Structures are given as structure tokens and as C-alpha cells.
Amino acid sequence: MFRIVSTRIAQALPVMLIVAILTFFLMHMLPGDPAVIIAGDQAGPEAIEAIRSSLGLDKPLLEQLWTWLRHLAQGNFGESLILNQPVLSAVRERLPVTLSLAAVAFAITLPIGIGLGIVAAYWRNSWLDSAVMGFALLGVSVPNFWIATLSVILFSVNLGWLPSAGYVPLEDGFGAWLAALIQPAVVLALFQIGFLARMTRSEMLEILDQDYVRTARAKGVSEYLTVAKHAFRNTLVSVVTVGGYILSLLIGGSVVVEQVFALPGIGRLLVQAIMARDYPTVQGTMLLLGFAFVLVNVVIDLIYTFLDPRVRYD
Fold it and tell me: What share of the chain is helix, strand, coil (3-state, %, to 5)?
């Protein structure tokens, strides 16, 4: 197991380096100067140039890149230009919000997406199959910012059932924590539910046509055991793969939802940093999100060996 983890992390290091370099150059290609934003509209050229010099922005790009990579190798992600605090500290403060949102959305996505996919596959070509696939198509097609806006208008403004914005820490009460997250989590989960349902249906259709499933039915095995034990178990590797991919998307793809619901998470921090041209925060946050994606994939590789003994890593 240690060899698997170490190998996967070693393979991910070049990817992380490429992500770091691309993020650095893409941020510097954006129009705007962080020194101007920090100095304010009334600042003169001398004040702006002094800020640029203090931040090291007057140096050549390659020299700035080398300095940043050298600091990264020492575990230093730099100082935020707009928050006046280390990037790691800013991310650490907002990480519980994003992880809580991703966890609730994942808990909604997994059972509903898998369940809808199984139902659609079992009753293939029926009105139920069409309804499930229509819902899945709607979920992957409608923009989540539009659904989020309608959800706030309906459930927060008109009905008053749920708060429209803000976050309540878990230590302040589970009910208040869940009430603050359930609406953005459902909005965030809709796309993933549709994606997971379509994938599960496709895998289940292929498995249900296999000879061993027909043999189980011929032997008189109940439909529940046939579908749950013989069919669904053989789709677990694909489901886990997609599940890990979905979890990564939920962690890194909550930018729009956090903005609409004013959740102080990593996604909102990233948007604010991009708008302010806060280079260290954007670069550090993107690198940490990339590391989270790699970590999720390593965990998936380990789960494979438990779900399917045929899966081995040489």
C-alpha cells in the first residue's frame, strides 16, 4: 500500500509543477496591476512603483517564477496581497466551509445518482427510464447559477424556509449548519446527480445483459439479489471512479455557488483574489486544489484493491 501511495504521489509531482507554472503565467497575462489596486485610485506613479518594488513585481517574470517555486519547495506559499496574511492561513480559515459544502453535496449526489441510474436501467425503455434520463439531462444542462438564483427566490424570499446566504459553523449546532448548507449543496449536486445517473444506467445495462445475470435468474435468485449482488457489485469500480471525480469537482467547482450564497469558502476566496490580481493567493489556492484532486485519486486507487481483487498495481 505504501508503494502504491508513494508511486502515485511521485507521478503527480510533474503534474503539480505544470499546474503551478501554468497558473503563474495565466495570472500574469490578465490585465490589471495589483500594485494599482493596493495603492488606490488617488496614488501617484511613485507610490505605485514603490509597491511594485516591495512586492517584487518589477523583476522579470522568470525570476519571479523561480522565486515562487523556490519558496514553494520550502513550504512557503507566500503572503496574500489583499488579506495581509499567509496564503495557507487564508485557505485554512475557509477550508471547513468548502469541505462542508462538498460533503453535504456528495452525500446527496451518491445515493440519488446511483439509485436513479439503477431504476432507469432496470426499467429500460419505459416511461420511468425516460423520466429519469430527462431529469438527468436537465441537471447537466441547466446552469447552476440560474438554479441557485431561482432557489433563493423561492425557498428563501417567498417561502422563508431556508437562509439565503451565510454560513454557520458545525460547532454552533448541526441543525443551523445543515440549514445554511442544504440549499447550496442541492444546487451544487444537481449536475453531478445527472452525470452519475447516466453513467450508472450505462454500466448497469451492460451488466444486466451478461450471461451470469441470466443464469442467476434462471436459478430462481430473487430480483433484489440479482440486481444488488450480481449486477451492481460489478459496476462498483466504475462508480467509485466517477464518485472520486465528482468529489474532486465538488471541492474545486463550488466557485459560483459560494458566490451566490455568500459562503466564505475557498471558491469565493479564489474569485476575490482573481478580481484583485492577488497573485500569491490565486497561485497557492490553485496548487492546493490540484493537490486535493491528486489525493482523491490516490484514495480511489486504494479502494480499487478492496472492491475488486482482480485490480492489482505492479
Answer: 80, 0, 20
Distance separating alpha carbons of residues 114 and 120, to the nearest angstrom: 10
Cell of 88: 495557507
Closest by Cα among 102, 5, 99, 12 to 304: 5
41 in a domain, yes or no? no
Cβ contact 113:265 at 8 Å: no
From CA 231, how far away is CA 108, in angstroms rounded?
A: 23
Distance from CA of residue 275 to its chain's centroid? 21
Does 257 reside within a domain?
yes
Per the structure, the complete domain to which residue 223 belongs is given by 87-147+186-307
The total number of structural domains that make up the chain: 1
- 3-state class of 79 per DSSP? strand
Distance between CA atoms of residues 231 and 212, nearest Å: 9
pLDDT tens profile 39-87 = 666 667 777 778 777 777 778 888 888 888 888 888 888 888 778 788 8
Cell of 39: 495603492
Cell of 27: 495570472
Q: What is the CATH number of the domain that holds 140?
A: 1.10.3720.10
| Domain contains 191 | yes
pLDDT in tens, 278-298: 888 888 888 888 888 877 777
Here the cell at position 301 is 486507487
Residues counted in the chain:
314
Residue 281 included in any domain: yes
| Contact call for residues 177 and 165 (beta carbons, < 8 A) | no
